[in-house]
């Protein structure tokens, strides 16, 4: 991040600004998702029963890769709860991400392909494993898009990418203490579908009519620690198998999707195409030292009233460093801070800490850009992921959003462990941060945000008292319960 001179944050661009021409589908979809047009209200779409219901296989205690633990700390709803709140956050608590488990030896379930039901926290066997597949668990993450599209309309597809990034981070953080973890956010969607034993998205409804298509977007590999690091993740070995068992058709699981849903599916399939490098790139994941299993389990998105107090500057610098460092790719990061001397900060090149990027209060503009969520104007601080220009390639659009979600997920877990309150913010309209700084418009858009607040009783000093070092509160501070309302940005 360049060390730019201090500038005053510019006001928001007019909501009625002329939108740029759309040279292709993706560009048009980006313009649309970032436009001020409000999605039409549609009735809340309840979650359908989990479509895979093959027999549940008993777990094998004592295995190196303990899937019960990894999934309980990441994607599963806590036992006895309605399933809306899970260790991983999700836009509108709609939880569109599904996990297909491709298991070799060394896991707490016998080798085979499984679909994980996050509400019951059960793995349903869908088929066998390839002969001689290496030990470990390959988890393919897909999205079932219909409920998120019903809720957010044309703004939904970036949220589906962000949600998948959060889910990949949750799995990686849960697994990284006892397994070696590699994460791919760019493997070819068709290869991921084949590996998971699913039809390619465009063929899904011909092959499995009456069931909801799933779009694969990411994969996480967990292997026993200390194994060879130079072996390719076994996507091709799994993809060579025949397709695994089908989900159960369900009424309303759409044979004729509404046009917005069909368009979003088409777009996400297109975005996930990577024929030049189908196996994807794989990056190791680790977990920030302070993040405990309890922090992962108790993470919550705090209600806005608990997010008003700016965290100490040292803590903000640590969260920003986590967001920037968990992946080598993806967007840039800036943090907007309130308090007595509000400013925007970026990381200081080559040394720890925060460098001032602009003085002035950006939060009212951020509140306007975040679909008018006014509480953001009085929040403590907002961590911002930005980049993804108007003419970004589909690979850049995919990585910008997946990595933003992944890194914000890691940042939220770290913030929780440090006792901070936080809440992700996913929908951004006309949020051209670069243009607000006076740079060329259309090059530097906000793609994700994480609002951060010091707990009301914490002993850390607000950002304005620069001389006093902040004291991290204890890691076990329990976050407040959410308001229970679905946000509708
Ligand atoms: C990608 C993403 C976008 C989100 N966007 C918003 C938002 O714009 N406004 C908001 O209040 N909460 C937002 N949230 C927080 C969700 O509402 C929250 O995760 C969900 O209600 C579940 O609650 P929990 O995080 O406490 O488990 C977002 C979460 C994610 C993962």
TrEMBL record:
Compositionally biased spans, kind Low complexity: 464-483
Record-linked SUPFAM superfamilies: FMN-dependent nitroreductase-like
Region (Disordered), start-end ranges: 456-489
Protein name: Nitroreductase
Organism of provenance: Streptomyces filamentosus (Streptomyces roseosporus)
Lineage, uppermost ranks: Bacteria, Bacillati, Actinomycetota, Actinomycetes, Kitasatosporales
């Amino acid at each position: 991040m360049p060390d730019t001179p201090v500038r005053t944050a510019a006001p928001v661009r007019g909501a009625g600004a002329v939108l740029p021409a759309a040279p292709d589908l993706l560009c048009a979809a980006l313009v649309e998702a970032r436009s001020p047009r409000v999605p039409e209200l549609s009735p809340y779409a309840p979650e359908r029963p989990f479509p895979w219901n093959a027999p549940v296989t008993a777990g094998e205690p004592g295995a190196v890769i303990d899937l019960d633990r990894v999934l309980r700390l990441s994607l599963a709803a806590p036992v006895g709860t309605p399933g809306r709140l899970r260790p991983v956050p999700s836009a509108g608590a709609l939880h569109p991400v599904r996990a297909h488990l491709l298991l070799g030896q060394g896991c707490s379930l016998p080798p085979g392909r499984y679909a994980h039901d996050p509400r019951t926290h059960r793995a349903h066997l869908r088929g066998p494993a390839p002969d001689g597949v290496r030990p470990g668990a390959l988890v393919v993450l897909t999205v079932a898009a219909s409920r998120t599209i019903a809720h957010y309309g044309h703004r939904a597809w970036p949220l589906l990418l962000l949600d998948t990034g959060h889910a990949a981070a949750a799995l990686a953080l849960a697994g990284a203490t006892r397994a070696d973890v590699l994460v791919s956010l760019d493997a070819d969607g068709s290869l991921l579908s084949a590996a998971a034993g699913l039809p390619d998205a465009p063929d899904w409804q011909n092959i499995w009519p009456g069931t909801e298509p799933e779009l694969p977007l990411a994969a996480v590999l967990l292997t026993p620690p200390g194994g060879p690091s130079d072996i390719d993740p076994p996507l091709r070995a799994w993809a060579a198998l025949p397709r695994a068992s089908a989900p159960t058709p369900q009424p309303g699981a759409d044979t004729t999707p509404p046009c917005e849903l069909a368009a979003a599916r088409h777009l996400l399939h297109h975005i996930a195409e990577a024929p030049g490098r189908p196996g994807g790139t794989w990056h190791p994941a680790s977990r920030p030292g302070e993040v405990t299993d309890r922090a992962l389990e108790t993470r919550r998105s705090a209600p806005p009233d608990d997010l008003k107090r700016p965290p100490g500057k040292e803590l903000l610098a640590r969260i920003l460093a986590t967001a920037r460092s968990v992946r080598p790719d993806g967007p840039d990061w800036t943090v907007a801070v309130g308090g007595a001397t509000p400013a925007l900060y970026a990381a200081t090149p080559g040394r720890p800490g925060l460098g001032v990027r602009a003085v002035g209060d950006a939060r009212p503009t951020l509140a306007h850009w975040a679909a008018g969520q006014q509480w953001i104007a009085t929040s403590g601080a907002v961590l911002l992921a930005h980049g993804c220009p108007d003419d970004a390639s589909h690979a850049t659009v995919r990585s910008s959003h997946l990595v933003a979600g992944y890194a914000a997920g890691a940042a939220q877990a770290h913030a929780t462990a440090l006792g901070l309150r936080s809440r992700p913010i996913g929908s951004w309209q006309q949020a051209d941060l670069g243009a607000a700084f006076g740079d060329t418009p259309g090059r530097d858009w906000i793609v994700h945000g994480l609002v951060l607040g010091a707990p009301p009783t914490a002993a850390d000093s607000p950002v304005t008292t620069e001389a006093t070092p902040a004291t991290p509160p204890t890691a076990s501070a329990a976050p407040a319960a959410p308001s229970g309302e679905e946000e509708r940005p």
